[in-house]
């Protein structure tokens, strides 16, 4: 059971729907929950030799809650001086918030862990270590290597970043495009024949799976169904149980206590694609009733009580 006296701090943009869902659940439970982001005022931190560090982030001067959900820290937009000075101010705000929050005893999940897990090569290697099938993959900026790989079978190109700027969908490529890899290293993957896309949400040792029928003509479901309306909660069975077991193992291998993962369902079983440590799940039917309470349990409970 969770102690209702637990306090939770959410690091997230003020308009983040997932953070708001978790906040409403905590309010309903009578648990004090607060926000911290780039717009928060009156941040104060102190730490003296021989004393425990303390942090206050509100005018009342409460100490930092013992559990922090690091959902996302947006970079503040500053326009008060020159471009260089505005950039420095933004960096200082980000560094200050990161520093004081990471002093908390428990962060779900630390940003450096999240950043590492977001790397597609790191995720693929973690999946392989736990025995999950993954697509044949090549990352290269060598056109000869790219051409040889593409000649071996149907191939897609996938972006490795999701930062500022264009974030293209994964799509089919042919040998005639191989020369384009000289602009930047490109992630190429062999196309996997699959009947369904699967999105798995893991929290601690719990996992839930949603699936959607897959079209042979479209390799990235986001292009045709950006809202994810085609996903349905998967019925429990041996195949889904195996998938969810592997997903929890992948998250654990990456040091994550929560994750959103993309998989494919094939005739021979699930194939891992990638993990997004703080991905979207509210678009999945029934997820607010299933994922949000489980995440709140995970955030509010003493670590020794989780899953008890």
UniProtKB/TrEMBL annotation:
PANTHER family: BETA-CITRYLGLUTAMATE SYNTHASE B-RELATED, RIBOSOMAL PROTEIN S6 MODIFICATION PROTEIN. Keywords: Ligase. GO terms for biological process: SOS response. The lineage of its organism: Bacteria, Bacillati, Actinomycetota, Actinomycetes, Pseudonocardiales. The keyword Ligase applies. It comes from the Bacteria. One of its GO terms (cellular component) is cytoplasm. This is Glutathione synthase/RimK-type ligase, ATP-grasp superfamily. GO terms for molecular function: ribosomal S6-glutamic acid ligase activity.
């Amino acid at each position: 059971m969770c102690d209702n006296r637990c306090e939770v701090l959410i690091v997230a943009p003020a308009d983040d729907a997932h953070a708001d869902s978790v906040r409403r659940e905590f309010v309903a439970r009578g648990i004090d929950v607060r926000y911290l982001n780039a717009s928060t005022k009156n941040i104060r931190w102190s730490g003296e030799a021989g004393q425990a560090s303390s942090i206050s982030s509100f005018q009342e001067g409460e100490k930092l809650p013992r559990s922090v959900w690091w959902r996302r820290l947006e970079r503040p937009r500053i326009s008060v001086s020159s471009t260089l000075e505005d950039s420095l101010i933004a960096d200082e705000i980000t560094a200050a918030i990161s520093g004081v929050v990471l002093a908390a005893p428990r962060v779900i999940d630390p940003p450096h862990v999240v950043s590492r897990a977001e790397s597609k090569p790191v995720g693929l290697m973690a999946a392989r270590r736990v025995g999950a099938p993954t697509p044949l993959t090549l990352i290269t900026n060598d056109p000869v290597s790219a051409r040889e790989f593409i000649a071996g079978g149907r191939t897609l190109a996938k972006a490795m970043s999701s930062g500022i700027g264009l974030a293209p969908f994964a799509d089919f490529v042919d040998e005639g495009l191989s020369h384009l890899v000289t602009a930047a290293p490109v992630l190429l993957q062999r196309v996997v024949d699959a009947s369904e896309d699967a999105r798995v949400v893991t929290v601690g040792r719990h996992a839930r799976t949603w699936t959607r029928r897959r079209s042979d003509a479209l390799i990235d479901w986001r292009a045709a169904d950006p809202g994810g309306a085609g996903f349905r909660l998967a019925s429990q069975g041996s195949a889904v149980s195996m998938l969810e077991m592997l997903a929890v193992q992948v998250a654990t291998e990456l040091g994550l206590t929560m994750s959103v993962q993309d998989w494919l369902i094939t005739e021979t079983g699930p194939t891992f694609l990638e993990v997004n440590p703080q991905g979207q799940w509210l678009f999945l039917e029934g997820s607010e009733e299933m994922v949000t309470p489980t995440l709140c349990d995970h955030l509010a409970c003493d670590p020794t009580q989780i899953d008890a």
